[in-house]
Design brief:
The chain is α+β, with helices and mostly antiparallel strands. It contains 36 helices and 13 strands. The longest helix has 28 residues.
C-alpha cells in the first residue's frame, strides 16, 4: 500500500484526530456529535480567521438547507464539550452578528509516512510509527525509527513555541488603550458609562496599565481628531502612536430582553488576538454585573495571576455604582474635570451621580476635588468626608485616592497624606502618586523634593496637563525660569492648554519684569470659570507689590464678583480676607479690621478664617485674633498648615503688636522647620513666618539677625512670587542694615524698595514712613 500521512491537532489540553473522528482531553475521550466535530475541525483549520455563520453552514451542511439555529445549538454543545464556562470564550470567540473565531494556538502534527500497512491507534502516543519492529529487524533500524520520532517531537515543540509567541500575553510593563464601547442597542445610557465602568474595574489591577485619558486626548489632538469617538480603528492608531501594546475593544448588543457584552484584546502592532471575553446580562439592570465579570476574565487572559485578580476584584457596584444613569453622569463629570479642567462644570454632573446613587463613593470624592479646585474648600471637605464614610464600597486603588484626599481636605494632615501615597506606591508601583507627593512637599516647603516628584510624575505618566503645570511650578519655585518656560513650550507643542500652566507663566513673566507677557497670560484666564477669579486675586497681589493699593482693592472686588458669578461660596471670603492682610501689612489697621470681619461674615472656611485672624492680629485686634486662633486649633487639630503655619503666624503677629518680641521669636522658632512652606490653594501664604521673625529682630534691635531673615525672602523670589512681602522685604532689610550701622547697604535696600514702589499710591502709611526714613539716610 502507498504511504499514509496522518494529521493530528493539539490545542490546550485537547488532541483531535480527524481520521478517527476522535477528541481527547488528556487520555479521556470527549463525546461529540458528528456535526459538532465537523464544526470543530473547520474552526481549527481556519488558522484563527473569522468564519461567518454562512461559511460555517456551507462547509458543514454543503448540500442541505438548515436553520441557523442548528449551528447555534452545535456551537453551544461544542463549547460545553471544551469546558467553556458561560463567562468565558477560551476557545471559540463569538463575533456578534458575524460569526466565530478559534482563538487558541493549534499545533498540527503529521506522522512520518512508512510503507506497508498502517497500524492505527486512537491517538499518536506512542506515535503510530513507534511500533515494535518486525522479527529480525535490526536494533539500528529501531534506533533510526525512534530518532525520526524524536525529531518530529522537537519540531512540534518549536512550532508550538512559535505559535504561542505570536499569541503571547501582556507583561506588567505593557500599556493598554481602552476604546469606546460599540453600542448597537440604541440606548444612549450605555455611551460613556460602559467604558468608564470597565476602566474603573481594570484599574483595580496592579498588573494592567491603561493609557490615561489625558494622554489619549493629547494624542487625538495631535492626530487632528480632538473630539473623535474612540472607535477601534482610532484607538489602534492611538495605541501605535503611544507605543502601547494592545487595544481593548468592547461592544454591547441587545438580543430580545437580554444584552450581550463582548470584549476583545488585540495587539495593536499586528492585529493578533490576545484574548476575548463574553458575558450575557438578563436585563438592563444586570449589565454592570456582566461588565465586572468580563473585566475579571480578560485580566486573567492578558496575563494577570489568578491570585492577583481575586485579591483586587471588588464588585462592580462597589467600584463604581449599580446605576447606569449615575455612572454616565460620573463619566461626563470625570471628562469635564480631568480632560477639560472645567471643575465648575464637573460639579453638577458629580452631584447628579450622587443624587441617583447616594452611595457612589468616587462621585463624592471627585466632586470634593473639583470643589477644592474652585476654592470651595469646605464643600470639598464635606464631599470627601462622605466618600471616606463609604470607603468600604470601593476598590483598593480608589480607597487610596479617597484616603489621601481625606487627609488633605478634611484633616489637613500632610504627613498622613504622604504616608497614604507611599503605601499606594507599594501596591501600584507604576502609578506612584508623584504629583500628589510633589504638592505635599511643596506645601511643606521642601522644593527640591517637590521638583523631583514633579519630574518623576511627567516621566512616568507623560502628556497630562496638570503634570506639565506642576513641573512648571516646581521650576518657578526654585527660580529656574528658563526651564519652567521650556516645560510650558513642550506642553504647547503637544496641544496642551492647561490653566495652571498660564498661572505659572504669569509668575515667570513677573519675575522677569515682562509686563506684556504678564498681561497676555492674565487676559487668557479671563472668562475661564474657576480661574478668572484666581488670576484677578494674584493681580491684586501684584498691584500691591508695586505699591498700587487702590488698584489692588479694585482687583480684589473683581475677583470676588467673578467668584460669585460661578456660584463659588468660599472664594469671595478668601479674597476679602487676603485683601484685609494687604491692608494690615501697609498700616491701614482700621480698614484691615473691617475687611477681615466682612470676610468672616461670608464664610468661616479654614483659609478665610485664618487669613482674617492674621489680618486682625496685625491690625491690633488681639481679642478677635486669639479667639479665632483658638477656634482654628480646635477645628483642625491635625491640620499641618493650621498648626505649623497659620497659628504661629497669628500668635507671633499679636505678640509683636503688644511689643512682646522675645516671646514672638520663641513662637516662630518652634515653627522654623516649616518656615518655607505654607502654600495653600489659590492664595499664597508663604514666607510669612520668616517675615515676622525678621520684624521681631528689628523690634528687638537685632539688626544682623534681621538681615539674615529678610535675605531668605529675597533669595526665594520664585516662592514669594507676587506676594507683597517680597517687596516689603527690601524695605525691612534696609531698616535692618540701618540698625547694624551699614548705611551704604541700608540706602541701597531703601532705594530698591522705592524703585519697586515708584508708582505707589502716595497715601499708603508704610510708603510715607519709608520715604521719610530714606531722606534721613541721605
Amino acid at each position: 500500500m502507498s504511504p499514509e500521512i496522518k494529521a493530528l491537532y493539539e490545542f490546550g489540553n485537547f488532541r483531535c484526530d480527524p481520521r478517527e473522528h476522535l477528541l481527547l482531553c488528556g487520555d479521556t475521550s470527549v463525546s461529540l456529535s458528528p456535526k459538532a466535530f465537523e464544526i470543530l475541525l473547520v474552526l481549527i483549520r481556519s488558522n484563527g480567521r473569522l468564519l461567518t455563520k454562512d461559511e460555517l453552514m456551507q462547509q458543514v451542511w454543503p448540500d442541505s438547507f438548515v436553520e441557523e439555529g442548528n449551528l447555534t445549538v452545535n456551537i453551544s454543545a461544542l463549547r460545553r464539550a471544551l469546558g467553556e464556562t458561560p463567562a468565558g470564550q477560551q476557545y471559540i470567540e463569538t463575533i456578534p452578528k458575524r460569526g466565530y473565531r478559534f482563538v487558541v494556538p493549534v499545533t498540527e502534527t503529521r506522522d512520518v509516512p512508512i510503507a506497508g500497512p498502517v497500524l492505527e491507534t486512537s491517538f499518536p502516543w506512542p506515535p503510530e510509527n513507534a511500533i515494535e519492529a518486525p522479527a529480525g529487524q535490526s536494533s539500528r533500524s529501531r534506533f533510526r525509527l525512534w530518532a525520526a520520532v524524536g525529531l518530529l517531537l522537537v519540531a512540534t515543540i518549536i512550532a508550538a513555541i512559535m505559535i504561542l509567541g505570536r499569541h503571547s500575553r501582556l507583561t506588567d510593563k505593557d500599556v493598554v488603550v481602552l476604546a469606546d464601547f460599540n453600542n448597537s442597542t440604541g440606548d444612549p445610557v450605555f455611551d460613556d458609562a460602559l467604558r468608564q465602568g470597565l476602566s474603573s474595574q481594570l484599574e483595580q489591577s496592579p498588573f494592567l496599565h491603561l493609557l490615561s485619558d489625558e494622554r489619549i486626548a493629547q494624542t487625538l489632538s495631535l492626530m487632528a481628531r480632538k473630539d473623535s469617538h474612540l472607535t477601534y480603528d482610532v484607538a489602534r492608531e492611538v495605541c501605535q502612536r503611544t507605543a502601547s501594546a494592545a487595544v481593548l475593544n468592547g461592544a454591547i448588543a441587545q438580543i430580545g430582553t437580554q444584552y450581550l457584552l463582548t470584549l476583545k484584546a488585540i495587539n495593536c502592532a499586528d492585529g493578533e488576538s490576545l484574548g476575548s471575553a463574553e458575558e450575557q446580562a438578563a436585563d438592563k439592570d444586570h449589565v454592570l454585573d456582566a461588565l465586572g465579570k468580563m473585566a475579571s476574565h480578560i485580566r486573567q487572559q492578558l496575563g494577570e495571576s489568578l491570585a492577583s485578580v481575586e485579591k483586587y476584584d471588588a464588585p462592580e457596584q462597589n467600584v463604581t455604582t449599580a446605576s447606569l444613569e449615575a455612572l454616565k453622569a460620573y463619566s461626563l463629570g470625570y471628562q469635564a474635570e480631568v480632560l477639560k479642567s472645567d471643575y465648575a462644570a464637573s460639579i453638577p454632573l458629580f452631584q447628579r451621580a450622587v443624587d441617583l446613587d447616594p452611595n457612589f463613593a468616587m462621585a463624592y470624592a471627585r466632586m470634593g476635588t473639583s470643589y477644592s479646585d474652585v476654592n470651595e474648600i469646605t464643600r470639598g471637605a464635606e464631599s470627601v468626608r462622605r466618600a471616606y464614610e463609604l470607603r468600604n464600597r470601593v476598590s483598593e486603588r480608589e480607597g487610596f485616592y479617597i484616603a489621601e484626599h481625606y487627609e488633605i481636605l478634611v484633616t489637613g494632615n500632610l504627613d498622613a497624606a504622604r504616608k497614604v501615597d507611599e503605601l499606594s506606591s507599594q501596591t501600584y508601583p507604576r502609578d506612584t502618586p508623584y504629583t500628589n507627593l510633589g504638592l505635599i512637599y511643596s506645601e511643606l516647603g521642601d522644593y527640591d523634593k517637590a521638583l523631583q516628584a514633579f519630574q518623576d510624575a511627567l516621566k512616568f505618566s507623560p502628556g497630562t496637563g496638570n503634570r506639565y503645570a506642576n513641573l512648571t511650578s516646581g521650576y518657578v519655585q526654585l527660580n529656574r525660569l528658563e526651564e519652567a518656560k521650556a516645560v510650558a513650550r513642550e506642553a504647547e507643542s503637544h496641544g496642551i492648554d492647561y490653566p495652571e500652566i498660564h498661572l505659572n507663566l504669569y509668575w515667570v513673566a513677573f519675575l522677569e519684569h515682562d509686563l506684556a507677557a504678564m498681561e497676555r497670560e492674565a487676559r487668557g484666564m479671563m472668562g475661564r470659570a474657576g480661574h478668572e477669579d484666581q488670576m484677578l486675586n494674584y493681580q491684586a497681589d501684584t498691584a500691591l507689590y508695586g505699591g498700587q493699593l487702590a488698584r489692588a482693592r479694585l482687583l480684589t472686588k473683581r475677583a470676588m464678583d467673578a467668584a460669585r458669578q460661578v456660584d463659588e461660596k468660599e472664594a469671595p471670603a478668601l479674597y476679602q480676607a487676603d485683601g484685609a492682610v494687604r491692608e494690615a501689612l501697609v498700616g491701614n489697621a482700621d480698614l484691615a479690621k473691617q475687611q477681615a470681619h466682612a470676610a468672616l461674615a461670608i464664610s468661616d472656611s479654614r483659609d478665610a478664617e485664618a487669613l482674617s485672624a492674621f489680618a486682625l492680629a496685625l491690625a491690633g485686634d488681639a481679642t478677635s485674633a486669639l479667639r479665632l486662633a483658638d477656634e482654628l486649633g480646635k477645628r483642625f487639630p491635625q491640620d499641618t498648615i493650621v498648626q505649623s503655619t497659620y497659628l504661629p503666624a497669628i500668635h507671633a503677629a499679636e505678640l509683636l503688636v503688644r511689643n512682646d518680641y522675645g516671646k514672638a521669636i520663641d513662637v516662630l522658632a518652634a515653627a522654623a522647620p516649616r518656615e518655607l512652606g505654607g502654600n495653600i490653594e489659590n492664595v499664597n501664604f508663604v514666607l510669612y513666618l520668616i517675615y515676622l521673625r525678621g520684624n521681631a529682630y528689628i523690634a528687638s534691635r537685632q539688626g544682623t539677625a534681621a538681615v539674615a531673615e529678610f535675605q531668605k525672602i529675597i533669595d526665594h523670589p520664585g516662592v514669594a512670587r507676587t506676594e507683597p512681602i517680597g517687596a516689603l522685604a527690601h524695605l525691612q532689610i534696609g531698616r535692618a542694615f540701618a540698625l547694624s550701622v551699614d548705611m551704604a547697604r541700608a540706602r541701597a535696600a531703601y532705594q530698591e524698595f522705592l524703585t519697586l514702589w515708584k508708582e505707589a499710591d502716595p497715601d499708603i502709611p508704610i510708603f510715607k514712613q519709608a520715604t521719610a526714613e530714606f531722606s534721613k539716610l541721605q
